[in-house]
Amino acid sequence: MKAIIIDDEKHVREGLLLLAEWKEHGIDTILEAQDGDEATKLISQHRPEIIFTDMRMPKKDGISLLKWLDSTDLNSMTIVVSGYDDYEYMRNAITYKSFDYILKPIDPDILNETLARAVKKWKEEALHRRSSVDAEFLAASSSEAKSMGQIEVFLRANYQQDVTLQEIADRFFLSREHISRKFKQEYNETITDYVTRIRMEKAKEYLANPHVKIYEVAYQVGYQNEKYFSKVFKKFTKLTPNEYRSTVLSGNR
Question: Is the pTM here over 0.70, yes or no?
Fold first, then answer.
């Protein structure tokens, strides 16, 4: 974890460095800044989890810094360290979600008790954020798997039709690219290969009946052209429809 100490007085920064039990709380990097302008640059670059800041500083003061922090996506714990028991400072610290407000001169016990609570709070919130992200990911994954399952059912029910990817996209309110990518991830086949395999499986069932003509089999599984059907069937099974029929019928004798 990282922390930053922001104070225009060097001896205050040195005091915090010496008094805080950094390593005990898992903080191995401590940055320093002497005003709000310098602090914003360091915070943007290093994104520290714990921020100690004075309120009365040259250039950008503590209130301006708190306003800026509140406007960012940082999830830091900010602890105000001030020599002023001032209502206006405290009100702004509360308004801009400062974690706590410590008065100077700094009491080591109060400092470390506050630091311990801040680190604990940061870890709890980090865990909650991670859990929320995981839950969203699982929900999205479940939703995608459900969508692909619905598409798979639709393809099985309509394998005889020449359904285009655009028609599927329009029906399920998804992009063509998303469907192509996710379907292949889910079923290890492109939609075209999947439909072809279903057609060939059905063709085998029809070919097992010697009374069904080859052109009828082709038509039943979605092919208007018998020759094209035979070509696809041979590519898929390494046998022509007639060869496959002969093999199946001879095996049934």
Answer: no
